[in-house]
Amino acid sequence: MKFEWRGGPATVVFESSLDPVELQHQGGDLWSAEVELPERFRVTYHFVDADGDEHADPSNPSAAGPNRSIFSTPDLEPQPHWPVVGPDDLFDLPSLRIRWNGTLGRKTVRVHQAGEPVVLLLDGDDWMYVHPAVAAFESATGDKMPTLVFLPTPRDRDAEYSDPGLWQAIQDELLPLLADNGVTVDPSRLVVAGQSLGGLSAFNAALDFPDLVSRVACQSGSFWWARELPGHGISLDGPAGGDTAERLRDLDLAGLRVAFDVGEHEPKMRRHCEAVEELTAKAGAAVRVNRSPAGHDRVGWRHALVRDVAWLLNDL
Description:
It contains eight helices and 16 strands.
């Protein structure tokens, strides 16, 4: 694939799986690079100029926010339900805004009110400002559109998403606050969706708070995480499944419903996810497993998000 940029020196940077590639001067103001991409690959990328500024690809109409672009190899079908949006497109924000001042500090939670049930989206800022989740769910569900609750991305994702205190606060503080604003959450019908560290948090919430969370969409969950590893648990080379795998060996998870997804192009993540997938199924949960043609990249997770939420709700 040829990537072209007009201006000065620049580098093309990929969200995951590939190293940055420096563009070569082709004469005039044209710079370009031929990059060999794997088969079945969808990726977010951007250009970085000599000043360090980040830019979407001006020749690519498919963007993810103001300074990212999306590329898919020709062997992939378009992602259903997700509209093609440009870098200058702005999305309508969910109309209900709730101020949550509690044990986790001050947060602003947005809610797109529709029907039951409720889908709680971790890292909700990405699904509001970068990828148009409301439009995608409306396209996928039609008149069965669920209510979407967008939980803001925490400042310290590592700390908040590895702490069960998040879910204690959601149970004790956020759910009553939602109810006060006309959004009643039935825990038996609640779907929680998270990616990466958010996927780890969503899944562990089902272990710590089974009466609150019993339906989980987990994309590329960070199951490498372990408290005793160096670097506060950040090590992809540790035991497969990290602390989560150890917890699963003695649990009965009948009643839990989990949709797992991980990228075809993130091999170091796959062994951790596979360990948790297998142990979860052995513990009695209803499990669905898929692989997205992407790396550790929200452009792969977004199709999995809509598909997996639909599966989690198909018995209601």
